[in-house]
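Bug #77: duplicate submission created two jobs. Keeping one. Sequence:
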Amino acid sequence: MQALLSILALIGAAICLYITVKCFMLHSDIEEFHATCSRYLDEIQEVNKELDEAEINFLRTLNRTIELTNKIASKINAFLDKFAF
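Kept job's structure:
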């Protein structure tokens, strides 16, 4: 009976050791995944900054284009007003 309990105790200890090793391996995988996600997040934030800057430059250019278009339209209207009856 005692031999059977000793065998069961050894089997239980082996199972516990196996689970412990698997948990450490999983923990290592999770840390690696977290580090990868952090790198991706940093890259995404950098790209977002670049996109924000590009958007600002685009809007400035668009505003300048609108201003120039309005000036041209104003000059065309002034020219056409000379021929109005």
